[in-house]
Amino acid sequence: MSFPNEQVETQGRSNLPPVVDPISALDRAISETPAAVAAVDSLEGLAMLESTLLGKESALGEVRRRMGQLDPVDRPKIGAKLNEAAEVINALLTARRAELEAEDEGRRVREESIDVTLQAITFPSGSLHLIQQTIDEVVDIFVALGYRVASGPEAELAWYNFDALNTPSTHPSRLESDTMYLDWGDPDDEVLLRTHTSPVQARWMEQHEPPVYIVVPGRSYRTDTIDATHLPVFHQIEGLAVDTDINFGDLRGTLLHFAREFFGPQSTVRMRPHFFPFTEPSAELDVSCFACDGGEPGCRVCGGSGWVELLGCGMVDPNVLEAVGYDPAQLTGFAFGMGVERLAMVRHGIETVRHFIDNDIRFLEQF
Ligand code: PHE
């Protein structure tokens, strides 16, 4: 079989091999396609092969283009062969495309998946300093009783640190040997680093109507040389309750509750007379030793006495109420102040206050 005007047709397109026998050309295309398709290993390659096998320049394209020139008698047979070839080649291409797409998908899943069993890059997580943890714990105990949390400046007027708290100008704690002054000399305008958190009592009462129930955690400063029990910068928590009918029993009951919450339900407290300028009467509060349960000789916490000294407290001096504009005939109150470092040391058996400022991770990570 041959195309009648084959010579004419191919003259201008000498790059195309003349299709001498369309049927055998199509058969060859059919038989060569499986190997060609199998040899392709990418979707891009397959797209190129598709145009090679089915495009204008392919054997199929060539036959299709010349259909019109065929002898009408041969056309149905060649047409059928052409369809068969197209179907076979298309089926092979489609099957291979599905394979390659599956491979691609598999590769993407492998490349993009995360191995959740791999050791992650982590940074060691820190924790709150024991001092902050202790503050939080004490504050929580009082907040649960309805107290509010107050704060005030660390650089304080001497007025709030001393005078408003009934501390006379001759009191020894006002000397530069005890107190760090930022501005010293003019008694009306002296600025110092507060020596306790008590000035916040006066500041709060000046700004708020009674009743008052506050706790005041914060830093305090004293001219102390560092040793096992002293730091020039340390922490206190102040407490103040002022209301119409507050008595010494309320103070004792409140502090007993605190001791039992902080040191354990078996705790008891005792009060020893003491003196503070801003409370009258004043006391020091001891808590029963939680480590030895009462007077074990050489106990590491109480030293054998059975009691641990904890804080200073007392009934708010009427002069303090007056200084802030409260009426001492209507109101009474109690106040207490505790050292946070001391609380933490007693509770955790820490033998020197230096540990709190050394920043030794081996100490810090124990809490
Ligand atoms: N401010 C006192 C101190 O620093 C403690 C204290 C507070 C005592 C409140 C009585 C009442 O030692």
Structural write-up:
This protein has helices at residues 6-11, 22-39, 43-54, 59-66, 75-112, 130-143, 158-161, 199-207, 248-263, 318-323, 340-348, 355-358, 361-364; strands at residues 148-149, 155-157, 181-183, 191-193, 212-221, 233-243, 269-276, 279-288, 307-316, 332-339. With 367 residues, the chain is an alpha+beta fold. It folds into 2 domains: 5-112, no CATH class; 130-364, BirA Bifunctional Protein, domain 2 (2-Layer Sandwich), CATH 3.30.930.10. Strands 1-5-6-10-9-8-7 form a 7-stranded mixed β-sheet, sandwiched between helices. A 3-stranded antiparallel β-sheet has the order 2-4-3. α2 (22-39) packs parallel to α5 and α6 (130-143) packs across α11.
Task: Please outline the helices and strands.
Blueprint: H1 6-11, H2 22-39, H3 43-54, H4 59-66, H5 75-112, H6 130-143, E1 148-149, E2 155-157, H7 158-161, E3 181-183, E4 191-193, H8 199-207, E5 212-221, E6 233-243, H9 248-263, E7 269-276, E8 279-288, E9 307-316, H10 318-323, E10 332-339, H11 340-348, H12 355-358, H13 361-364
Parallel strand pairs: 1-5
Antiparallel strand pairs: 2-4, 3-4, 5-6, 6-10, 7-8, 8-9, 9-10
